[in-house]
Amino acid sequence: KSPFFACNDRPETRYGIYNERLYPISSNYDEVAHYQHLKTFACLYDVPETPLRITGKDA
User: pTM of the prediction?
Assistant: First the structure.
């Protein structure tokens, strides 16, 4: 699960597995309105990336 899992966890949310994490695929939003909102406003978007920590003298 991502750190933002609780933000998307609603009864109608459908999840998929990507990069060994549960990723929200659909939350039953109006897709056109959601897209316009993303284009108009700044947002924090949950992406299924694996966090990496690189250490050492060449990091």
Answer: 0.53
